């Protein structure tokens, strides 16, 4: 099981162009260590999206990944949808776009 904690304030950022590479590394670690609970932290929302894409494309099973934000755990389905989207979770782009409209 992979648990990815989203911490936009205190986690290292990943350049946009490297997000899929980072997500693929996380998935590779999960595939190589299926008996372990692996924990990663990211401050980059695109890493979350890249992991969801890897689930949708069948590169990682949805029941083997979960996301954590503050005290809330979120599961992903085979379509890459999360079962919850707490306020403040990976929403910076949306906030900025709303100001531009």
Your description of this structure?
- This protein has 101 residues and is α/β, with parallel strands linked by helices.
- It has one domain.
- It is built from three helices and four strands.
- It has helices at 19-32, 45-56, 92-100, and strands at 2-6, 38-42, 65-69, 72-75.
- Strands 2-1-3-4 form a four-stranded mixed sheet, with helices on one face.
- The model has no long low-confidence stretch (mean pLDDT 93).
**Termini separation (Å)?**
39 Å
Report the count of strand segments.
4
Provide the succession of SSEs: EHEHEEH
What is the molecular shape?
Answer: globular
Within the largest sheet, what's the order of strands? Answer: 2-1-3-4
What is the mean pLDDT? 93
Radius of gyration: 13 Å
- Number of helices, counting only DSSP H or I runs of 4 residues or more: 3
Give the total of domains. Answer: 1
The helix content, as a percent range, equals 25-40%
Unreliable stretches (pLDDT < 50, length at least 5) are: none
Please describe the structure with a list of short key phrases separated by commas or semicolons.
101 residues, alpha/beta, four-stranded mixed beta sheet, 19% strand
